[in-house]
Amino acid sequence: VNRFNDLYLRAARGEKTERPPVWIMRQAGRYLPEYRATRAKAGDFLGLCKNPELAAEVTIQPIEILGVDAAILFSDILIPVEPMGFAMTFDPSPVLDPPVRSRADVERLRVPDPEESVPFVYETIRILRRELASRVPLIGFGGAPLTLAAYMVEGKGSKNFDKLKGLLYGDPRTAHALLDKTTVVMERYLAAQVRAGAQAIQLFDTWAGILDPDSYETFVVPYVRRILDALRPLGVPLVYFAVDAAHLYDAMDGCGADVIGADWRLPLSEVSRRLSGKFVVQGNLDPCVLYASPETIAARAREIVTEGRKAPGHVFNLGHGILPDVPVDHVKALVAAVKSA
Ligand code: CP3
Fold first, then answer.
1. 26 has catalytic annotation
2. Cα–Cα distance, 70 to 89 (Å, whole number)
3. Is residue 260 a contact partner of residue 281, using CB atoms and an 8 Å limit?
4. By three-state DSSP, how is residue 167 classified?
5. Which residue, 19, 74, 130, 249, has most beta carbons within 10 Å?
6. Three-state DSSP state, 130
7. Strands 138-143, 71-72: parallel, antiparallel or unpaired by DSSP?
8. What residues contact 34, with CB distance under 8 A and at least 6 apart?
9. Is 171 part of the annotated catalytic residue set?
10. Tell me: the pLDDT tens digits for 152-209?
């Protein structure tokens, strides 16, 4: 009989654990042949996200293949954005049409009930909780408002985010109206994930690091805080992850998370010091270390485990999502190294 592995939940709540739990951002992804096979069955990436049986299948693949300590719902941060009023495609990067550029564009956006607009997300979660009951916890997730607004305003990824920043600095009232509307959508979308069975929630704020600390306090902290405060009474651990954001750690204190995800740019002891030792930290192997030999990967993993012991708690992860062309054996070597650390 398999016993439920609650290591991730205990570490995320700040309890002392015998070793850090390990999971990998984008762990269900193109580097796995099994993922590519299931995606081909679904047709394309969006078709996979919208098919609960197949989305649950790829969510479970890394649990079985790698033996990681948590599952993360297979979906995308832009799934709840599409029904706000966009045509959305992935090639594989996301494209949203039409982009939001004016006050009228923001007014036009809908605030749909997520259980009606994206029911497949909740059906996937319910299937997963049944199938994972004797295995590992299920992490739900969403995008933070600034990062979602970045895609809505640019219409796609961007190098400098000039249209987003043009809106923030040139027409802050419209920017706040967009962030407010997105916050309302995300509060409902994520609370419903927890009600459906998600046992932790991670907010991805991939593009927050493009801001200076004052702008981050103005355009990010209040909105992230509203979402996490709304989720707080539901009792699940709350994780906030931003990339290239070491200059924002002071202000991040105001976001109301339990766990802060870090990229690879600073050692975890320094990340924790800059967060005043108040948070469990998650991270932070450079995803590109997975191109090195299994011996090098294991050595770097052990260093990160040692660094993590200097924080109030540690969840092992990469510093950003896994890349599509890393060898699966190298990923297995990483998981084995963390488990024996
Ligand atoms: O971690 C997981 O395994 C859960 C699944 C997950 C995906 N996207 C699947 C996905 C999660 C948590 C995300 C979050 C996400 N999506 C973020 C934040 C995290 C980050 O990476 O910074 C962002 C910015 C997006 C938007 C997005 N979706 C981009 C920029 C891309 C293209 C990236 C690429 O691989 O070229 C996607 C597509 C996407 N989302 C894929 C996957 C597995 C690749 C699609 C495919 O199978 O072809």
1. yes
2. 29
3. yes
4. helix
5. 74
6. helix
7. parallel
8. 58, 61, 65
9. no
10. 999 999 999 999 999 999 999 999 999 999 999 999 999 999 999 999 999 999 999 9
